[in-house]
User: What shape does this take?
Amino acid sequence: MQNTTQQLNDTLISKSLSAADYVPTLDAMLSRTLARIDLKKQQGLRTPDELWIVDHNDVYTLGQAGKEEHILQRTNTPIIKTDRGGQVTWHGHGQLVIYWLFDLESLNWGVRTLVSHAEQAIEDVINDCLGISSSDSTDTNSANISAHARRDAPGVYLYADTSEKQNNTGNVSADASIDNTIMLGKIASLGFKIKHGFSYHGIAINLDCDLSAFNAINPCGYAGMQMLRLSDFVAMHRHTNNGADDSNSDESKINEQILPSLSYEQVTQKLIDNIAKRHAGLIELRAIASK
Assistant: This one.
């Protein structure tokens, strides 16, 4: 497991973990959170918040109140009970996982604020990627697709516009009403744990992972929920099983000359930048959609 750390600003750092097993990552995340809680309580110290960008080895995780009935089929992939909210989900290569180790009290954020910032950061980045695909190519597969959160079900979902009221790029506006849209499925999940005002766990976005892993579960407890990945709507460099990007391969270079494409790393950086701006108070929350 490789570990690299980057200082984003005075109060936020990022740490990247590749080919990470789930249990030691969870143990390290909890240990760090407890240490920060202790430093704040005992010495009044505010420690920098942390974003952990994780490429997990395959695993199913079952939330604190998760029901095993949502595990439809036992496979060779381990099933780990964990302390986050939510039901069962899958993590693995080609999926972007970001854990938010934030001191919510110091940010003056409540739990709803945290969740809304997480969902809206995902919306921003996915819609930006869909916009890049629409404007940089003649492919119309994503021309009427947009990402939205739902009030009744945490996470971010892709919708297809059924009206002709699209913006001048061909995409549905990120803040447009979704009354005239059809939900295609779920592209990102989230689940947090709050301990003494500190958050950990976080978000998972399907970029170019193998979606068949979700066939063995009811994703997030929803039977029949269609799981989606960004690479089916936006041209992306292939993400290999060891978590590496093959954008330097001859095939990738030829494909990029024909159709501009995004890499796993580019999408990751877009999301880190968006979250860092929200953490610094530079991006305010939009009104939460009614649906």
Notes: Residues 241-245, 249-258 have pLDDT under 50 and may be disordered. The two ends are 40 Å apart (CA to CA). The first strand starts at residue 2 and ends at 9. Helices lie at 22-43, 104-107, 111-136, 250-258, 264-279.
